[in-house]
Structure formats: structure tokens, C-alpha cells
Design a protein that fits this description.
Blueprint lengths: L1 H14 L19 H5 L13 H4 L9 E12 L4 E11 L4 E17 L16 E17 L6 E14 L3 E16 L2 E8 L4 E7 L3 H9 L8 E5 L2 E13 L2 E12 L8 E2 L4 E12 L3 E14 L5 E15 L3 E8 L10 E12 L3
Antiparallel strand pairs: 1-2, 1-17, 2-3, 3-4, 4-5, 5-6, 6-7, 6-8, 7-10, 8-9, 10-11, 11-13, 12-13, 13-14, 14-15, 15-16, 16-17
Length: about 350
Amino acid sequence: MRRLAAILVLVAMCALGVHAQSKYSNEFLSLGVGARGLGMSNTMCAITDDITSAYWNPAGLTRMDKRYQLALMHAEYFAGIAKYDYGGIGFKIDSNQAVAFSYIRFGVDNIMNTTQLIDDQGNVDYDRITYFSAADNAFLLSYAYAFPQVQGLSVGANAKVVYRKIGKFANSWGFGLDFGLQYHRKGWQAGLMLRDGTSTFNAWRYSLTDDVIAVFEETGNEIPENELEMTMPALLLGGGKTVHFGKGFHGTFAIGLDCTFDGKRNSLIKSNFMSVDPHLGMEFDYKKIVALRFGLGNFQREPDFDGKMKTTLQINFGIGLNIKNIVAIDYAFTDLGNLSIAQYSHIISLKVGLDKFKK
């Protein structure tokens, strides 16, 4: 039983990327936030214009139409075993400046710790079972500035703190910076974001008891040591166009390119130097009251039953409702992060804006 408990602890550590490596480190920060962006397959780098810009591209915070904005989102993986939560609050200082604070958590709670299930006399005592959580947390402090000399041009940055914890067994602190730029003019929009521009470093510290170490050694598992994990920079590019159809109808079409430099990934465009993951999204709305959204993303090359390689993709769908330009409720039907056992997930997010900002 103790062997099984030690193996479960080791698997939890591996699943959260404990081993020092750069590829897929802090990958929970690549999932996306807000049902609008998820419904459009993460094509938000250029078109984001609300509090969620702190995540997608902090430069977009200057385009908030409210002085104060609050956003919340909750999603679940694996039939509710893993939970993904986001909350953000933003404040527009003046017509050229905005700040925001965001919190993101991805975690598995109530994991049974059975390492002490058997007492020193060899008796099984279920009262000795305890519970722990394995969670990744990120705190983002954002600032954005719009250049008054160049209409439509804005820049932004995130100071990011990452705290990851696996019960009492291990934890880490990390820090990094993101940088963003947006330009919009006459319905055309362009965006650029350098995520983890300084690289994000996570310093891991382990606190394994002698009992757990003994079981690890007995089962031939490696004993983890304190180490440094690094997240390499990623370049996110985006473009978009908003079209007015008349009588209150609008359409927004967007494209996003996620460029990573941590080795070859299973993306549509890949090489040993860089991998590029494209996304396509569109949104149709009526007077900004109701919206219908679609997205294409997660293009991959996968083998079929005959062993032949084929290109697969993920189709996303979403709707939005804006109530009196104060409360926005968004829904997305999407496979969040393409990690869940079920093919698609239901995502709901809420956004509240107060005190319309006037230039």
C-alpha cells in the first residue's frame, strides 16, 4: 500500500512538471481565459479589448470601455477532478493608462495521502488517511499605456508570480515578465505578445519525509532534489478585422500564431528551432448585445487506424450576451487545452463593467 502511495505522489509531481525542463513548463498558463477567447480558439492577441487582455495581451487594457471591470471563469477537467479558475479586476486610470490584477489556478484537490495508512505494527488504519492538493497558481500585475501621439498604438506588460504546490511534498516560486503591443486603425487590428519574455524561473523545493524516501528507494524511483525549472519565451502574433454589415450587425475575423522556441512540438508548422500553432476565429454580433462565435485551432498531424498521417483540428463554438452594457455572460463549447478525456467541455465566464469611461 505504501508503494502505491509513493507512486501516486511521484506521478502527481511528474504531471505538474516538477522535473527541471523548459518544454511545457507552466503549461497551465497557455490554456486561455474567458469564454469569448476560448470560443474563438484563442485568437485574441490582436482583438482583445477588456479585462481579459491582462492575459491575452496587456496592451489591450487601454481599450476597456469601463473605468472598472471584473471577470470570473470556472472550468473543470476529468469529470470535475481537476478545476481551472480565473479572476481579474481592472482599472482605467485615464484615457491612456490602465492597470489590472489577475489570478489563475489549475489544481486537483482532495488527493488521498495513504503513506501513513499502515501503522508501525503493520495494521491498516483508514483514519490515518489525509488529503492534499496539487495546484498551480499565477498572479499577474498588468500595466498598459496608449501613445497619444500615435492613435491606436498601445503597449503593456505583466509582472507574473507563479506559485506551484504539491501538498506538503513540494512547492516552487517563480517570476517572469510578459510584454505586449497592439495597433488598431479603421477596423484593422494587429497584436504581438512576448510571453515569458525574460524567461520564467521556478525554484522547486522538496520536503519528503523519511518514510516516503524509503518507499521511493525500495521501489527504484528517483529521489527528487531541489532544482530550477525554466519556461522559455514564446512569441504570440495576431491580426484581425472588424466589418460593419449595417443595421447593427458586425463581424470580427481574427488569426493567431503561437510561436514556441523550446524544440519541436506536434503543431501544424514545426522544426527543431521553432514550432508555430495557428488559430482562426470569428465573431458575429448584433449591436454588441448578442454574439455568435466560432473557432478553429489545435491543428495536428496524427496517425489514423492504417498508420497514415492525417491533419486533425478542433472546432470551437461560443455565444455571448451583454445585458445593458454592464454584465456580459459568455459561453464556449470547447475542449479546454485539449487535455480532457471528454472531447469537448462547457465553459462559462462572467464580466462586469462599472462607470463608463469618458475621454
